[in-house]
From TrEMBL:
Species this protein is from: Cohnella endophytica
Lineage of the organism: Bacteria, Bacillati, Bacillota, Bacilli, Bacillales
PANTHER family hit by this protein: ARABINOSE-BINDING PROTEIN-RELATED (PTHR43649), DIACETYLCHITOBIOSE BINDING PROTEIN DASA (PTHR43649:SF12)
UniProt keywords, alphabetically: Signal
Pfam families: SBP_bac_1
Name of the molecule in the record: Extracellular solute-binding protein
Signal sequence extent: 1-26
Residues in coiled coil: none
Length: 462
């Protein structure tokens, strides 16, 4: 879903890391975590640790978020209040560009800069760096704290039995709907529906012609919007099977995915044409909030914005619906994506870095009030209240439908794909672009995409 030049730059920086640190192996054992406290008891024991008994430690935390906008400064302050001997220094461009961030992270590692903590927006980026021994195994710390990742979090990012990071936010997808447009069309907020019914809604919500046309829906240019029927299944939702070698492209669900797009854009003309998205460089946020599209499939990262911000006020009420299913009666599944927080294998403060990672992914992320945690014990209703508290007009959010979606959709089983999955995804996306521009039919697009992905698998299996 991202440009090839960005991927190449990341690959080059990864090679630089490997050349500088090829002699370093991830076999460095975690030292006795005498300074770390049991994270399971952190929530019940909030007493600060005296700085007098500990040597002051400064952790360098690499990420891409904006510290002010995304309330990370509140996180650092709360952590240091509890652990006065640990200071967290943020290393971020603050531009929320998780792709550019990866290049900067890899170059910092190649240059020997201090890195203690790093975050990844997708499991394949995490897997790539685990493969070159950038990440510290956390299993000894986890065992000492007495919990299991799979029990405490919705995502279990283990690779070959080793855990190199803890899940932070959980990204669930759902459908945002302009409630005013629904009322105008005499439509109700769905609690369960199929993709065929979604297409019917899109037709009924489409209005006008030419530059004033309002589309019923909008599908962004990312790869997952060409995998709507398959990509939200409980299992086998990637383009490759879990073994990383068997293709999962020419399937009935992938064919259905492309048929959804073709029906909406070419037949019903109820979705913004892909040609316009590319030529005009359209983005999902303004398309929805400026009422150019009545429905969008998106993630829970947009929840705070539905209540309005200083820059983009909420001029209409937003309702929420679960993702459509392929067939009536199918489980209401959703994505189970997650930011992953890892400790650098060359950090001189691994114990303290792990302590922050565990604290943030359990307590800190809830205090932050910005994201839905992957932590299973989090109070989701309270987190949503915190999110909406920062909205300018929270009454413009249909909270009842939001809570229903967040409490009833089932997260798909989390899988860490092979480290070269991005290459397969990019090969697939190039072929999908041709399909969405009307240059290939469904079967040809899938056949050609499968052939390109097979080349990727072959080149990485030598």
């Amino acid at each position: 879903m991202f440009k090839y030049s960005i991927r190449m730059a990341v690959a080059i920086s990864l090679i630089a890391v490997m050349l500088v640190g090829c002699g370093s192996k991830a076999s460095n054992k975690s030292s006795d975590a005498s300074a770390s406290q049991s994270a399971s008891s952190q929530e019940s024991n909030s007493a600060p640790v005296s700085a007098d008994k500990k040597e002051m430690v400064t952790l360098k935390f690499f990420h891409w978020y904006n510290d002010d906008q995304d309330k990370w400064n509140d996180v650092y302050k709360a952590f240091q209040e509890k652990y006065p001997y640990i200071k967290v220094e943020s290393v971020t461009a603050g531009d929320n560009n998780s792709q550019e961030y990866l290049k900067k992270l890899d170059l910092a590692a190649a240059s020997g800069d201090q890195i203690d903590l790093m975050m990844f927006s997708a499991p394949q980026y995490y897997a790539q760096r685990a493969a070159i021994n950038m990440l510290e195994p956390l299993d000894d710390y986890i065992a000492k704290d007495g919990y299991k990742v799979a029990d405490d979090y919705y995502s279990d990012p283990a690779i070959n039995g080793k855990t190199y990071g803890l899940p932070a936010k959980k990204v669930s997808f759902f459908v945002l709907l302009n409630k005013n447009h629904l009322d105008e069309a005499g439509l109700t907020v769905p609690k369960e529906w199929t993709w065929d019914e979604y297409l019917e809604y899109a037709k009924k919500l489409t209005k006008g012609e030419g530059t004033n046309k309002r589309y019923g829906t909008y599908f962004h240019s990312w790869s997952n919007y060409t995998q709507l029927a398959q990509g939200f299944q409980m299992d086998d939702y990637y383009l490759l099977k879990p073994d990383g070698k068997t293709l999962n492209v020419e399937t009935p669900l992938m064919k259905k995915s492309l048929e959804i797009r073709h029906q909406a854009e070419f037949v019903d003309k109820s979705a913004t044409p892909f040609s316009e998205i590319v030529s005009q460089k359209l983005n999902y946020r303004p398309q929805y909030f400026s009422e150019k599209a009545s429905m969008i499939v998106t993630g829970d990262f947009l929840i705070p914005e539905t209540g309005g911000t200083d820059k983009v006020p909420a001029n209409f009420k937003t309702a929420f619906a679960p993702l459509p299913t392929v067939n009536k009666g199918d489980p209401q599944t959703t994505t189970n994506a997650s930011d992953l927080l890892s400790v650098y294998s060359k950090s001189k403060h691994k114990e303290e870095a792990y302590l922050f990672a565990r604290w943030y992914t359990t307590e800190g992320i809830q205090l932050q009030g910005k994201y839905i945690p992957s932590y299973k014990k989090a109070d989701i209703a309270k987190v949503i209240d915190n999110q909406l508290a920062s909205a300018k007009t929270p009454e413009m959010v249909d909270k009842e439908s939001l809570l229903y979606v967040m409490q009833n959709q089932i997260p798909q089983n989390f899988v860490v794909p092979v480290s070269y999955y991005d290459q397969a995804d990019q090969a697939f996306l190039k072929e999908m672009d041709l399909f969405l521009l009307g240059k290939e039919d469904v079967d040809t697009a899938l056949k050609n995409a499968a052939a390109k992905i097979q080349e990727v698998v072959n080149s990485n299996s030598k």
